Amino acid sequence: MAQSPDACVTARARPRVRSESHTSHALSDGWQAACSPAPAHRDAHDLDGLDWMPASVPGTAAGALRDAGLWRLGQQRDFDAEDWWFRTRFDARAAASGEELRLRLDGIATVAEVYLDGELVLESESMFASHVLDLEGRAGNELVIGCRALAPLLAEPRRPRARWRTRLVSERNLRFYRTMLLGRAPGFAPGPAAVGPWRAVRVERTRGLAVEELTLRPRLEGASGVVSIHARLRTLDEQPVRSVEAELDGPSGLHRTELTLSGPADALAARGELVVPRVERWWPHTHGEPALHDLRLVVAGERPTVVIDAGRVGFRELAFGSTPSHDIERDGIDLRVNGARVFARGAVWTPIDPVGLAPCEQELRAELARVREAGMNMLRLPGTGAYETASFHDLCDELGILVWQDFMFANFDYPFEHERFRAAVTREAGELLGALGGRPSLTVLCGNSEVEQQVAMLGLDPSLGRGELFGELLPALVRDSGVDAAYVPSAPCGGELPFRPDRGIANYFGVGGYRRPLDDLRRAGVRFAAECLAFSNVLEAAHAEAPAEPAGVNPVLETGVPRDVGADWDFADVRDHYLEVLFDLDARELRMADRERYLELSRAVTGEVMCEAFGEWRRSASPCGGALVLWLRDLLPGAGWGVIDCDGVPKLAYHHLRRALAPVAVWTVDEGLGGIVAHVANDRPVPLEASLRVALYRDRELRIEEAAATVALAPHTQGEWNVEAVIGRFVDAAWAYRFGPPAQDAIVVSLERDERERGPRMLSQAVRFPAGRPLERETAEQLGLSVETAALASADVRVRLASARLAYGVRIEAPGYLPSDNGFFIEPGAGREVTLRRLAHASACAVGRLTALNMHGQLDLAMGASPS
Predict the structure, then answer these.
(1) Cα–Cα nearest to 283, from 417, 163, 400
(2) 194: closest CA among 319, 353, 51, 323?
(3) Which residues pair with 270 in a beta bridge?
(4) Of 342, 371, 391, which residue sits at a domain end?
C-alpha cells in the first residue's frame, strides 16, 4: 500500500539531530534518470526501453541533462511536459534487535510515486514535503522515483474557480500544487522547472535510542540567556533512561542542567531550562559578533551513555519598533536587535544552482560570504522559490545574516477550502517552524509574496487576499510554535491599499520599474522595502559565455533581461531611463553610436542609483527601517536583476552596494538649498573616533578648500555634518543657489582613521558632483594615472593605483580574478589599493585591463609583475 503524505512520519523539530546511536547514509551514488512521454509508463514494472543516463541526487531532471551535455541553461525545454524516472539500488543490512532502519526522502518535485522493489510505497503531491519510510525486513533494494508530468494535470479543469488571476505564471492551476514558481514564471524565471528528487535521499539507522522531536527556544532574560528544551525520546531496546543532562558550551563557558523526565519509555519527554548568566549575545555581523553556543544532551542509563548533538543556539532579543504600540502593518519594520537599531539591508535570495537545486556547503558558504562582504545583513527567501537546506540556515546563524522567510505562496488564490490542500499546508508550515524555530538568524516569517497586492491591484477587496490561510492558520501556527520572529501576512501589506510605500511593508519600485525621479526615494516615505531596486544589471564581459541562441545576440547586454508579462517594456528600458537621468545622454543614440561606451555607463548606472537610494533610506532621519534588493543572483546568464551573475561573479552594482552598505561608512545626500550633508554610520559595537575630511575640487584637480571635523560616535549610532559647516563658510556646495558657475565640480568626503591607530587609514570615502558627473574623457597620461601590480604568495595580485587628477568609475577587468573593489573613484593626488583574488577553477589571464569612465582607452595590468 502506498502511503499518503499525511501517513508518513516526519520530524517536526530540528531535523537530523546527530547522536552516537544514529547514523545517516546519503544515497548519492549510482543514480540513473530517464524521461518518457506522459503517461507512457504506468509504474516501476513498466520501464523497459527507456534511455537511462547518470544522475545526481539530490538533483533534478534538468541537472541530469546538463551534466550529460544534452541541455544547457537558457535553452527551451518544458520539463513539466514529460514523466521523469530516477532509480538506484542500495544495500541496507537488516535491522538487528533494538535497531530501526528507515528511508528518508527530504523532497521530491512534484507529483511523485516512490517504489521499493517494484512496490508502490509512497505518493506525494508536494515538493516541500519530507517523508520517512520503514525499511524493516528489506535487505537489497531497488528504489525508483517517478515524477509525473505536471502539464497534463494542470490542463485539467479544477474547482473552485479562482477569484482572481495572476500573470506571474502562465499555468493558473499551479495554485493547486505545492511546488516552486521559479522556473515557471515566463517574465523573469522561465525555466527550468524543478522536477525530481531535489533534496537528499538517505538511509538512517538508529540503535537503542531515537530522538523523535527536539525543540529549542533560546531567549534573553536581562543579562542571562535561557534556553528552553523539550525532547521526545523513544527507546528501541529494553534499557531504561535514567537521566538526561543538557550541556551548553561556547563563548559564555560550559553550563549544565538536568532535564525532567516523564512518560513511558517509548514516548519519553525530557524538559527543562538551562540558564547562562552574563551570556554572550548573538548579533547580525554588521553590528557585532554572531556568538553561538553548542548544545548537547547526555542521555545516561543502563546502556552506554548517548551524547546527542542538538546543534548550536544563539541568544538575541528582537523588537520591531521603538515603542510597544508599534504596528508593523502601519509603521513598517524598525528592527531592534539586543536594543540597538539595525538598518536591515540585503537582497532577495535565489537558488545558486537553479538547475540542480543542490549546491554543496562550500558553494553556499562562498555565496553567503559574498553577502557578508557586501555589508548585507538580511536575506529574504521569497514565496516564489523553495525552502532552503539546514546547511543554509546553519551558515546564516554562523555568519550573522538575518533571514526573512516567506512561506512558499505567491500571487494565487489558493484552494484552502480543500481538506487535502489544507492538511498539506498545515504539515508544511509545522515542519518549517520546527526546523527554523530556535535559530537566531530567523527574524521575519511572511505568509506570502504579493497575494494582497495582486488582489488590490485588480480592484478587488484586499481582505480577500488574506483570508483564513494567511490571516488565521499561519499566524496561529507561528504563535503556538513559540518562534521568536515577526509574522507578516503578505509582502507588501499595510495601509488602505497594501502597495502604498508609506505604510507597513512595501515592494518599492518607484525608482526602478515605474521610472520615478530620484527625489521619489524621499517623497515615497518607504517604511520597509521587502523588494526594491530591480534593474537589468549588465554583467562583466570577461565572464560572459557565448549565447546559446539566437545567433548574434550579445550575451552581455541582451540575454536574461527580465520583463513583466504583457508589458511593452523590459528592465533594460528602465536602466536606459536612469542612464539618461544620471548622465544626461540619449541612451538609444549612444547604444547605436558607441556600444562599448554604452556598456560602460550601463554597468555603472544601476549601482550608482542603488547607492543614492540606500544613502537616502539609511540616514537617521529617514522613516525607512530596511530595504532588500531584487535580487541577489541571476537565475539565467545575462543582464538579469542579480547583483551577482549566475556563475557567482559580482557585477559592478555589487561593488557599489558594498561601499554603500558597509558597517562603517560615509555618504552624502544633496539637500538642495540645505547644501550637501555628509552622513556617517557606525554600526560596529565599539566607539568610532575618526576624522571627517572634506575637500572641494575644481577642474578635477585643483583643491580649492579642505577642512576636517572630528567624528566621535558611540556604538550603533549615526551622525551628520553639513559640508559647509565643516568648511566654515557658505560655498553653495550643492550648486542650488546658482549665483554663478559652480565654484567646485567635485566634493570628496573621507572618513579617516587616526594616524596612531593600526589598519588602513581610509575607512570610507564618497564623492558628490554638484554640476554633473565628469564624463569628458582624457588619456591616462593626462589624468596622471599610474598602476603597479605585484603577485602575492596566495596567487592573488595586488594592484596599486595613483592619479594626479580625479579618476571616475575606475574598473578593473581580469578574467580568472575577482577584484576586492571596482567601479570606484580616485581622489586627485591620492591612490587606491585593490586585491585581485585568484579564482580556483578558472583560467587566469596574463594581462588584465583598467578603464575609467573619464579616460580614453585602457591601461594593461601585468598579473604578477610590475609594468614598465
Answers:
(1) 400
(2) 353
(3) 231, 261
(4) 342
Please answer whether residues 92 and 203 qualify as being in contact, where contact means their C-beta atoms are separated by less than 8 angstroms: yes
Q: Which residue in 252, 255, 262, 257 sits closest to 229, CA to CA?
A: 257
Greater model confidence, 386 or 546: 386
Q: What is the C-alpha separation between 836 and 812, in angstroms, rounded?
A: 9
10 Å Cβ neighbour count for 20? Answer: 15
What pLDDT, in 10s, does the model give residues 649-700? 999 999 999 999 999 999 999 999 999 999 999 999 999 999 999 999 999 9
Same domain, 800 and 824: yes
Contact 507/524 with Cβ under 8 angstroms? no
* Residue 66 shares a structural domain with residue 155: yes
CA distance 74 to 192: 8
Q: Tell me phi and psi for residue 527, to 5 degrees.
A: -90, -45
Residues 389 and 455 in one domain: yes
Secondary structure (3-state) at 158: coil
Q: Check which CATH number belongs to the domain holding 719 and give it.
A: 2.60.40.10
Residue 668, helix vs strand vs coil: strand
Tell me whether residue 698 is exposed, middle or buried, using C-beta atoms within 10 angstroms of its C-beta: 0 to 12, 13 to 18, 19 or more.
middle
Identify the domain boundary among 310, 342, 374: 342
Full residue range of the structural domain in which residue 582 is found: 360-420+446-467+488-647
- How far is Cα 403 from Cα 318, in angstroms, rounded to an integer? 13
**Phi, psi values for residue 225, rounded to 5°:** -100, 135
Residue 857 forms part of a structural domain: yes
Question: pTM, whole model, 2 decimals?
Answer: 0.95
In a domain, 440, yes or no: no
Task: Give bridge partners of residue 250 from the DSSP assignment.
Answer: 253
Collapsing DSSP states into helix, strand and coil, what is residue 207?
A: strand
How far lies 830's CA from each of 142, 723, 868, in Å? 68, 21, 20
Distance CA 2, CA 122 (A): 4
Q: β-pairing, 626-629 with 131-134? A: unpaired
Q: Are residues 730 and 582 in the same domain?
A: no
Cell matching residue 402: 538575518
Grid cell listed for 543: 565572464
Among 444, 439, 487, smallest CA distance to 215 is for: 439
Q: Are residues 114 and 186 in the same domain?
A: yes
* Residue 480 within any structural domain of the chain: no
Cα(208)–Cα(214) distance, rounded to whole angstroms? 17
**SS3 labels along 715-779:** CCEEEEEEHHHHHCCCCCCCCCCCCCCCCCCEEEEEEEECCCCCCCCEEEEEEECCCCCCCCCEC
Distances (CA, A) of 481 to 13, 296, 489: 10, 22, 17
- Write the pLDDT tens digit of every residue in 342-383: 999 999 999 999 999 999 999 999 999 999 999 999 999 999
Distances (CA, A) of 715 to 376, 509, 692: 18, 32, 17
Phi/psi region, residue 225 (left: phi>0; alpha: psi -120 to 50; beta: rest), is beta
Cα torsion for 542, 855, 571, 659, to the nearest 10°? 80
> Within 10 Å of residue 546's Cβ, how many Cβ atoms?
8
Q: Quickly tell me which residue has 596574463 as its cell.
A: 846
**For residues 497 and 458, what is the distance between their CA atoms, to the nearest angstrom?**
12
- How many residues belong to the chain? 868
Q: What phi, psi does 406 have (nearest 5°)?
A: -80, 145
Q: Total structural domains in the chain?
A: 5
What's the pLDDT tens digit per position in 820-862?
999 999 999 999 999 999 988 777 788 999 999 999 999 999 9
409 and 515 share a domain? Answer: yes
| Distance (Å, whole) CA 602 – CA 585 | 12
Contacts of 523 (CB under 8 A, 6+ apart): none
Alpha-carbon distance 813 to 596, whole Å? Answer: 14
Query: What span, in angstroms and rounded, lies between the C-alpha atoms of 771 and 73?
Result: 44
Report yes or no on 48 lying in a domain. Answer: yes
Cross-strand partners of 133:
103
Together in a domain, 218 and 197: no
